[in-house]
Amino acid sequence: MPIFFAFSDESGKYKKERTxxxxxxxxxxxxxxxxxxxxxxxxxxxxxxSLKKDLLDVDYQQEVKWSYIWSLFKHFQKKEGVPQNKPxxxxxxxxxxxxxxxxxxxxxxxxxxxxxxxALTLTFNERDKxxxxxxxxxxxxxxxxxxxxxxxxxxxxxxxVGVLFLNREEPAIERRLKEAxxxxxxxxxxxxxxxxxxxxxFEYFSQSFGSQLADYYAGVFNGCCRLYAxxxxxxxxxxxxxxxxxxxxxxxxxxxxxxxxxxxxxILKGILEKVFASEEKDYKISLDAKLRTGK
Length: 295
What we know:
This protein is 47% helix and 14% strand. The chain is α/β, with parallel strands linked by helices and 295 residues long. A six-stranded mixed beta sheet has the order 5-4-1-2-3-6, sandwiched between helices. Helix 2 packs antiparallel against helix 4, helix 5 packs across helix 6 (171-186) and helix 7 (209-225) crosses helix 8. The longest helix is centred in the middle third of the chain and has 20 residues, at 135-154. Helix 6 links the parallel strand 4 (161-167) and strand 5 (201-203).
């Protein structure tokens, strides 16, 4: 019986009532779900830890999150020391480019994995695009879409079963996630997702391979929608090939706006068109060079 693991994480924040300052800092709330067969998970995590050791020479317990790169960038930009209490303190000696390259190499491993597929969901935080919905409602819509996508993929492989793992969040968000998924499973025909284990599993070990994978996909997608050069490069070459699609179409399948809206889908389509508008343009811009030039 084929067993699949799905790992999900968020990037950005969402609030029902959103100030201009909040929206400026968090224009999007994104979630990712990366799906792969258990056998591939075993071999890939070994390669992941080897890459971490070979490229960064850090212990496997040192988490390398997508957001750490940008936190370090801000410290370096301000020419200030990295506080010892920060979880990325031990990464301060590494160049930003080497950290981005590590994530690129990890995502390329997944790009080359036949069983790997990725689902991405996004909420626009601008008030004219998303009405003031309760946080639990928004989380429920994200997770419903992710569960539907995973279930659809499971049906393609007879006898398969999937297990969903969520990254740990702040207590309030984690509680709402639990409530949202509980409500999802209680609604509609039972079992609603017969190929997905009816349980809720949080990744209590933040350094886990699957946890960091989901973090990378969510972070890159968020940055890509904000048209950040490094994120665009990673999205186009490492992420896009693994996104769920119907034919060649990803929107409405592997990439979905939440709540679903034709108006917002057109806006998301426009963002993706900008991302792919100039195939010959080199988006692989050095973060370290950006620090040196200040541009």
